[in-house]
Amino acid sequence: MQDSTIFVERTALTVTAPVRALARRFRGKRADHVVHGVKTVIAALLTWGVVAPWVPQNQPYLAVATAVLMVNASTVYESVRKAAQSVGARIAGLIIALAAARLLGPTAGAVTVIALIAVLAGPRRTADDRLQIASTAVIALTATATDPMGHLFYPVLQTLTGAVAGIAVNALVLPPLYLNDSDSALRDLADALGSLLHDMGSGLARRQLSLKGYGWLHQARALDKRLTHAEQQIQQADESLRWNTRCVAHTRRRNTAHTESDAFKVLRGIAIQVRGIARTLADSAHDGHADHHLGQQFLDRYSQALHLAAAAVQGSVETHLIADTSDASPRERLRTAIEETLTWHHAITDMVGLGRLTKPGAWHVYGSLMTDLERLLSDLDHAHKH
């Protein structure tokens, strides 16, 4: 009855979860495009209205371009960082152009000096910064030769004004948050871990160890990409909370970000154990020593533990992500799965210790599998307690 219930729940999740995730992403992406478009228009018009009255020849294009760049930064913190880099690079480039024009005039020699200074004088700067300094200096070279101070003052002031306008719009008009993206990445990671655990459990129950052993190991190794993606999404979500005005009205959002970071640490530890289980099973399936093969009694019970662990892994993420709500069912499912698996774990450990399991030559394999499972349960238990 328990296995059939797990199968039904698993099948329903497999069918409905991708559909819901795809719908959420489509709606989220469309809404993001609309918000970015509106914010871009607001920043451009605001900058034009502020800069056009005092800029020479009524051409505030540099300020508008800077504002558009800043307002489309991925986070408020990123827009401030980009603004500081852009203004600094603009000032450095114009100063270099002014010095080169004074000493060498608008000649090929001045261009060579600018390129050398921009590339060699700032080793700590990124390649983009050095390129922006050099391009600004070269473009401004001729202009500074005819009107040095005017063409040094107005571009810097335009850049600064555009940066301030872009940052202000980005910070005050629906500043970007990426908590939904990090939630989705965590759920996808937990689903992948749970799917692999469930598949390994089903394969062991159906006597498919030799057939699927290396496939499980390949899937376990492929989890590294999901781990990297989830970590990047969580870092971006955490950065999006810095200096974000929406967090003032929604203080719970920051707590959610910390909770997601804790959930990721749990899943990262679980992924290590899942990979260890897959590696041990793959090695055992193709071990040439007959007495090293795992007994079917052990594999049957171990498959049940993997099914329970799969449910517990997914329950751990649900527990983290809705920890502040009144719905206690994910926590209850996690607690039940852990208790049932621990009960079986203690029973099978006693059987190994008393020598009741067959295949005594495979005890080192039993030990490896049980150790990984015990550590996996330890991570889950830690997540459950917190």
From TrEMBL:
Pfam families, A to Z: ArAE_1
InterPro entries per the UniProt record, alphabetical: ArAE_1
Major localization listed first in the record, in broad terms: membrane
Membrane topology: Multi-pass membrane protein
Record key words, sorted: Cell membrane, Membrane, Transmembrane, Transmembrane helix
Transmembrane segment boundaries: 34-55, 61-80, 92-121, 156-179
Location in or out of the cell: Cell membrane
Top-level taxon of origin: Bacteria
Protein's name according to its UniProt entry: Integral membrane protein
Organism: Streptomyces musisoli
